[in-house]
Specification:
heterodimer, A: alpha+beta, Butyryl-Coa Dehydrogenase, subunit A, domain 1, Butyryl-CoA Dehydrogenase, subunit A, domain 2, Butyryl-CoA Dehydrogenase, subunit A, domain 3, 4-stranded mixed beta sheet, 11 helices, 47% helix, globular, B: alpha+beta, 3 domains, 4-stranded antiparallel beta sheet
Chain lengths: 391, 375
C-alpha cells in the first residue's frame, strides 16, 4: 500500500497542470449554462477543439485511434487536475466516455475511421438513445422499431431523457429488430445521423428550469445497414458494454467538484451569522458539516481503492455502481447541509448566483440518471454479494 | 499509487484469518465471555507465538517491527473472530510506553509485552467519561521522590488481567503517566458490567497508591502529544477491529439471505432484503477504506493523520452499529436470540463505538480541524 504518486505519475500531472494553466479560458460569463446550440455551446465546442489539438482528449483510448493509451491512474489525475483548474467541461462527453470506447470495442474498421477522430475533436457531437417512456431501468424492454427495407432500416419510435440530443450530430440508438425474439435477443445498436429526415428533438424542461434532456421522435427515419454497431440482434451486448462504461466513469473529477463546493460552504459558514454567532460555531451544524467532510473523504478513498482494483482488470466491474451510488446520495446530503447552513438566503437564485438552490434541485436527478440508486443496489446485491436476481 | 495490501500483507492477513478461525471459534468466545475476565492464557500464548503481541513494537525490543497497515490486516481478523482479551488494551499501553517512556522503561515493558509475558492497559476515564486527556482531573501528588495517586478511574478495559495499569493523572506540570503494577497496595479493581461481555470493563480505585518518581513515564516534554499519538494507534486498531466485525456480520447476513426460505424462495431474492445487504456492503467497504487510510497516514507521519483518524473512528463507529442493525433485521427472529452469534458482534460494535470517543466526539474533532483551523 502506497498512496503517493510515482515519479512518472507526477510528471504526467505536472505536464497537464502546465498545459491547463496556459490554456484554460476565463470563466463563461454568459447568462445561460444550458448546453443548447447557443453561444455557450459554441464556447464549449471551441474549447474541446483546443484540448484536442493539445492532445488531451481520449486519454484512455488506444494511441492508434488518437488517444494516449493512458492508465486509469492517469485518467484519475486528469479528472482531478481538470476540476482543480476549473476548466470548462468537454462538450462531447458521451462520445468520448461511452460511445467512442464502444465503437473501438465492436465497430468495423470503416466505422472507426469515420467516427472516432471527430468525436475527439468535438466536430461531431453524440448522444445516446437508450431510454424510452416505457423502458427506463428496464432498457431491454424498449420498443422503438427498425424494419429492414433493402439496404436500409426504417426506424420508428420515441426515446426520452436523451442528454445532448438537441446539439447532437449522431446518436447511438438501440432499436428492436426482431420483435419475436426474447427481449434481450432482438435488439440492435445503430449509429444514426441526427440530421436525417424524420428526427424530431423536443427539449424537456427540468425542475431546475433548464433543459439538458430531450425527447427524440423517429418517424420513418432511414438508416443504412452499414451503420449497425456490432451485429444485428446482438445489440444488448453492445448496450451493456456502454452502460458499464457509463458507471465506470471515475469519481475523481466529481470529488474535486464537490470538495470545491464544500470548501466554499465552510468559508460561507464562517461569514454567515445567526443567533449572535457565526453559524460555523453552531454545534448542530458543526456535526453536519463534519459529517459532510467525512463522507467526502470516504468517497475520495473509495475512488482511490476502486482505481487500484480496476488497474488489474480488463473490463469495468461493479466498482462503477458503488461509486455512482455513493456520490449521488452524498451530493444530495451535501446540498441539504449547505442549505441548512446558509439558512433562508440559500433558497434565493440571487445568493451566490443560485449555486446552492441549483445544486439542491439538480442533485435530485443524480440518484435517477445513469441507473437509479435502486438499480445500483440490485447490481451490488447480485454481482458482488451473489444474491439471486430479483427480476 | 496503490491502495491495496502488498503480497506480504495479504499473506499475513490470510494466515491470521486461518489462525483465528482455528483458535478462536464462536464456542470459545462464548465460554470466555462467561468468565470474569474473558482471558485465555493459552490463546494469548498462541497469539504471542505468532509474534503479534509485538507486531508494531520495534525489533530492538523484541517486536516484529511491522507497520500499522500490517497491524490493521491482523486486527481486522481479530474483529472477524470477535476475539476477547487484552490485545487492544496492551497495544494502547505499549504505544504509550514507547512514546513516553525512557529507554530503560521501554526495555522493561516492551520486551515482555512482545514476548507475551506482560499484559497492560491504560486508565484514562473518570466520572465524566471524557476521552479528551485534557479533562483528566485525578491528582498525582508529589511527596518527596514519590507520587501518591488517589481517586477513581472508570471504564478501564481488562484491568483485572493487566500486569501493569498505566494511570493517566495530573501533577502541577500537566499529565503524568504512572505505571501501577498488579497487586500494588491501595489498588481496588471492581468489574463494571457492560453490554459487551467480550471486552471487560472495570473501575479502579487508587487509595494513596505510591509510585516512585523514577518509575513515571516522563521521557517526553509533551505528554499530551505522546498520549494522543499513542491513542491514534489504538484508534486505528479499533477501527480495523470494527471492520472485521462488519465483515463477519455482512457475510453471515448474506449467507442467511441465501438460505432462509419464505414464500417458497430464498429471502435474498427480494429487493427489500437485497438493498439492506448492499448498504451493509457499502458501509463495510467504506469503513475499510477509512481504516486503511488512517493506518497509512499515521505510519507515514502524514500531516493529515489526525484528521484521518477521526474520520475513520467516526465513520466506523456509526457504520459498525448500523451494519449490526441491518444484519439483525435481515436475520429476523433468530437474530434477536441469545443463541445466534450476531449479538456478540452487535454488542462488540456498540462498545467499540463508545471506546476512544464515539462518532459525535470525533465529528467535533473533524469540525475543529476543517472549520476552525482552515485558512
Amino acid at each position: 500500500m502506497d498512496l503517493k504518486l510515482t515519479a512518472e505519475e507526477m510528471r504526467f500531472r505536472d505536464e497537464l497542470r502546465a498545459w491547463l494553466q496556459a490554456n484554460v479560458p476565463p470563466p463563461w460569463t454568459g447568462t445561460t449554462h444550458e448546453e443548447g446550440k447557443g453561444p455557450y455551446f459554441e464556447f464549449l465546442r471551441k474549447w474541446q477543439k483546443k484540448v484536442f489539438e493539445g492532445g488531451w482528449t481520449g486519454l484512455s483510448w488506444p494511441k492508434e485511434f488518437g488517444g494516449r493509451g493512458a492508465r486509469l491512474i492517469e485518467q484519475s489525475i486528469f479528472q482531478e487536475e481538470w476540476a482543480r483548474a476549473e476548466a470548462p467541461p468537454l462538450i462531447n462527453v458521451l462520445g468520448m466516455s461511452l460511445i467512442g470506447p464502444t465503437i473501438i470495442a465492436v465497430g468495423t474498421e470503416d466505422q472507426k475511421k469515420r467516427y472516432l477522430s471527430k468525436i475527439l475533436s468535438g466536430e461531431e457531437i453524440w448522444c445516446q438513445g437508450f431510454s424510452e417512456p416505457n423502458a427506463g431501468s428496464d432498457v431491454a424492454g424498449l420498443s422503438t422499431k427498425a424494419m429492414i427495407d433493402g439496404d436500409h432500416f426504417i426506424v420508428n419510435g420515441q426515446k426520452i431523457w436523451t442528454s445532448l440530443a438537441h446539439a447532437a450530430d449522431y446518436c447511438l440508438l438501440l432499436v428492436r429488430t426482431d420483435p419475436t425474439a426474447p427481449k434481450h435477443k432482438g435488439i440492435t445498436a445503430l449509429l444514426v445521423d441526427m440530421h436525417s429526415p424524420g428526427v424530431t428533438v423536443r427539449p424537456l424542461k427540468q425542475m431546475t428550469a433548464d433543459s439538458s434532456f430531450n425527447e427524440v421522435f423517429f418517424d420513418n427515419v432511414r438508416v443504412p445497414m452499414s451503420n449497425i454497431l456490432g451485429e444485428i440482434n446482438r445489440g444488448w451486448g453492445t448496450a451493456i458494454a456502454t452502460l458499464m462504461n457509463e458507471r465506470a466513469h471515475l469519481g475523481s473529477g466529481i470529488y474535486i467538484q464537490f470538495k470545491k463546493n464544500f470548501d466554499t460552504l465552510i468559508s460561507r459558514s464562517r461569514e454567515t451569522r445567526r443567533g449572535g454567532r457565526a453559524v460555523s460555531q453552531d454545534p448542530v451544524l458543526r456535526q453536519k458539516l463534519a459529517q459532510s467532510h467525512i463522507e467526502l473523504e470516504i468517497f475520495r478513498l473509495t475512488t482511490m481503492r476502486a482505481l487500484s482494483k480496476m488497474q488489474h482488470q480488463s473490463i469495468p466491474g461493479p466498482e462503477g455502481s458503488i461509486l455512482k451510488l455513493q456520490w449521488s446520495e452524498l451530493n444530495q446530503r451535501l446540498a441539504q447541509t449547505s442549505m441548512e447552513t446558509l439558512g433562508a438566503q440559500s433558497q434565493l437564485w440571487s445568493t451566490d448566483e443560485g449555486r446552492w438552490v441549483y445544486n439542491f434541485l439538480r442533485s435530485r436527478g443524480n440518484t435517477i440518471e445513469a441507473g437509479t440508486s435502486e438499480i445500483q443496489r440490485n447490481i451490488i446485491a447480485e454481482r458482488v454479494l451473489g444474491l439471486p436476481k430479483s427480476y | 499509487m496503490d491502495f491495496d495490501l502488498s503480497k506480504a500483507q495479504k499473506l499475513l492477513q490470510q494466515s491470521s484469518r486461518d489462525f483465528f478461525v482455528r483458535e478462536c471459534k464462536p464456542e470459545r468466545v462464548r465460554e470466555l465471555m462467561a468468565t470474569e475476565t474473558a482471558y485465555d492464557e493459552s490463546l494469548w500464548r498462541a497469539i504471542a507465538d505468532q509474534g503479534w503481541t509485538g507486531l508494531i513494537i520495534p525489533e530492538e525490543y523484541g517486536g516484529l517491527g511491522l507497520g500499522l497497515v500490517d497491524l490493521v490486516a491482523v486486527v481486522e481478523e481479530m474483529g472477524r473472530a470477535c476475539l476477547p482479551g487484552p490485545f487492544l488494551s496492551t497495544l494502547w499501553a505499549a504505544a504509550l510506553i514507547e512514546r513516553a517512556g525512557s529507554e530503560g522503561q521501554r526495555k522493561q515493558y516492551l520486551e515482555p509485552i512482545s514476548a507475551g509475558d506482560l499484559k497492560a492497559t491504560v486508565a484514562l476515564l473518570e466520572e465524566e467519561a471524557d476521552w479528551n486527556p485534557a479533562a483528566v482531573t485525578m491528582r498525582a501528588e508529589k511527596d518527596g521522590k514519590t507520587f501518591k495517586l488517589r481517586g477513581r478511574k472508570e471504564y478501564v478495559t481488562d484491568a483485572a488481567v493487566a500486569d501493569v495499569i498505566i494511570c493517566v493523572a495530573r501533577d502541577n506540570d500537566g499529565l503524568v503517566f504512572l505505571p501501577v503494577e498488579k497487586g500494588a497496595r491501595g489498588v481496588k479493581i471492581t468489574p463494571m458490567s457492560g453490554l459487551d461481555q467480550t471486552r471487560k470493563l472495570y473501575s479502579v480505585d487508587f487509595d494513596d497508591v505510591a509510585i516512585q518518581e523514577a518509575d513515571a513515564l516522563a521521557f517526553t516534554t509533551k505528554p499530551q502529544d505522546a498520549f494522543e499519538a499513542a491513542t491514534d494507534i489504538a484508534n486505528v486498531a479499533i477501527c480495523a477491529e470494527m471492520v472485521g466485525l462488519m465483515q463477519w456480520t455482512l457475510d453471515a447476513t448474506v449467507d442467511y439471505a441465501k438460505t432462509r426460505q419464505q414464500f417458497g424462495r430464498s429471502i435474498g431474492i427480494y429487493q427489500a432484503v437485497q438493498h439492506q445487504c448492499a448498504d451493509m456492503y457499502l458501509m463495510t467497504e467504506s469503513a475499510r477504506s477509512a481504516a486503511y487510510y488512517a493506518a497509512w497516514t499515521v505510519s507515514e507521519n502524514d500531516p493529515a493523520a489526525k484528521l484521518a483518524v477521526s474520520v475513520a473512528k467516526s465513520y466506523c463507529s456509526d457504520g459498525a452499529r448500523e451494519v449490526g442493525n441491518r444484519g439483525v433485521q435481515v436475520h429476523g427472529g433468530i437474530g434477536f436470540t441469545w443463541e445466534h452469534n450476531i449479538h456478540l458482534y452487535y454488542k462488540r460494535a456498540k462498545s467499540s463505538e463508545i471506546m476512544f470517543g464515539d462518532a459525535n466526539y470525533h465529528r467535533e474533532k473533524v469540525a475543529s480541524k476543517v472549520i476552525d483551523e482552515a485558512d
